[in-house]
Design goal:
By secondary structure, this protein is an alpha+beta fold. Helix content is 32%, strand content 35%.
């Protein structure tokens, strides 16, 4: 396996643990390109069901990542991520990981103190410097809402 692939796998692990779990945004310039194209399969479907639109070519800057992180993860307690599988070839890394976090606020639409567990998979493309430039991420948001005790309904005609 090439040094580039091993570097990209290491950088993805660091991004998960040091940036997302640890909240160390000072690492973003090293691990994420200034603009990263992001595709979020199931999450985007939930946003569409809520009547909101998703930009076709969504790009996150470092500031947009930090704002999204604070909206989705900030305040979550007992946050852990465990990578179960990670593979790489060329400029791509694919991985499967478990996310655990306790939500002690009503971020999910219900007040809960439950430990929420979900599995996510991702395909991440890296530039020549080992920074993420594009990612496809998939998880099951309905499972997360159900674990939190939320009721998800779809209005007729939605």
């Amino acid at each position: 396996m090439s040094d580039q692939v091993e570097r990209n796998k290491t950088n993805f692990r660091r991004f998960q643990q040091e940036v997302i779990v640890g909240g160390d945004f000072s690492l973003l310039p090293e691990l994420m390109a200034p603009e990263m194209k992001v595709h979020r399969s199931a999450n985007d479907s939930m946003v569409k069901l809520q009547g909101r639109t998703i930009p076709e070519d969504r790009v996150w800057t470092h500031d947009q990542f930090i704002n999204g992180y604070q909206a989705a993860v900030g305040g979550a307690e007992d946050h852990r991520r465990v990578i179960h599988e990670i593979y790489g070839e060329g400029d791509m890394v694919c991985a499967r990981w478990t996310i655990e976090r306790r939500h002690s606020d009503d971020r999910l639409g219900v007040s809960t103190d439950e430990l929420i567990r979900s599995t996510e998979v991702g395909f991440i493309r890296f530039d020549d410097e080992g920074r993420m430039i594009e990612g496809w991420f998939m998880l099951d948001p309905l499972d997360i809402y159900e674990q939190a005790g939320a009721t998800v309904t779809i209005a007729a005609g939605a």
